[in-house]
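Query structure, 302 tokens:
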């Protein structure tokens, strides 16, 4: 036996008499067990330089970059190297894919079940979050659109302004369109009339808030006949004669008065009506900024 070595009592191998190959034992002369670490069901200790780690599978000493991160180990790295992990995935590919699909199915079923149980709660939470972080979401969306400007331009070219796309997906979007028009009737009316005005190259700046102001100014009644009926947006100066879709050219009128006036001149049409009223005429002209000669003061100021 060489100096500085020790023979294992179980396997008979001659190994260096160090703590890397034998465990401590105080009642022995040399302070080491008679059985080597491997025979005691323990791996031999190997001195690993800093920045390296030994793989538990292939026993190679590799740089720490060859190991994936882990939160369950003291050094923050997995016990097996990347090559051993990759080889394991290749050898058990079918089993891993099968288990992955099973877990995905379980997660999907759990999500559907959770949404079904807490649908109203989730909606309320999302709505509250959007209200609490309104400015942050607005700023984020603005920044995102600026960073992905080319993508949105390309998307609009391929979808929004593609007649073939809308023709193919007409049935798909129709229920959503009907639902939106039912719940946003006045806003939809503003959009459609603004589009018609822009097509004729006329100003179209009327907003939903301004339309609300117009209705409140006339107490929710028809500006011409004074009846409390469903109101429509009536162009004081018709579009065919250059009337703009702005707050100083729109009054609220019932459907009967709106269709009766059509594209006629107000000063010729209104005095001939059976419901003509000088008081209502004066209120209308004051609201639109007309003087006694029938000249609109707002137009003169521009």
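Result returned for the query:
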């Amino acid at each position: 036996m060489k100096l500085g070595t020790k023979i294992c009592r179980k396997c008979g191998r001659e190994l260096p008499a160090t703590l890397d190959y034998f465990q401590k034992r105080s009642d022995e002369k040399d302070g080491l067990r008679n059985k080597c670490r491997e025979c005691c069901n323990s791996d031999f200790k190997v001195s690993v330089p800093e920045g390296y780690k030994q793989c538990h599978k292939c026993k190679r000493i590799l740089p720490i970059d060859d190991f994936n991160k882990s939160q369950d180990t003291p050094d923050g790295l997995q016990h097996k190297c990347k090559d051993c992990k990759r080889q394991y995935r290749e050898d058990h590919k079918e089993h891993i894919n099968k288990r992955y699909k099973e877990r995905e199915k379980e997660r999907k079923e759990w999500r559907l079940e959770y949404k079904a149980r807490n649908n109203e709660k989730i909606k309320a939470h999302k709505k509250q979050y959007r209200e609490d972080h309104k400015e942050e979401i607005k700023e984020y969306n603005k920044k995102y659109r600026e960073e992905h400007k080319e993508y949105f331009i390309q998307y609009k070219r391929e979808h929004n302004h593609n007649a073939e796309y809308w023709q193919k997906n007409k049935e798909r979007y129709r229920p959503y369109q009907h639902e939106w028009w039912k719940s946003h009737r006045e806003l939809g009316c503003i959009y459609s009339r603004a589009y018609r005005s822009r097509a004729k190259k006329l100003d179209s700046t009327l907003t939903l808030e301004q339309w609300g102001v117009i209705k409140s100014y006339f107490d929710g009644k028809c500006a011409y006949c004074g009846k409390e009926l469903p109101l429509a947006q009536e162009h004081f100066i018709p579009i065919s004669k250059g009337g703009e879709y702005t707050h100083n050219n729109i009054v609220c009128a019932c459907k009967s008065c709106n269709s009766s006036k059509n594209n006629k001149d107000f000063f010729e049409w209104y005095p001939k009506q059976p419901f003509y009223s000088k008081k209502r005429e004066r209120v209308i002209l004051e609201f639109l900024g007309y003087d006694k000669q029938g000249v609109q003061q707002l137009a003169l100021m521009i």
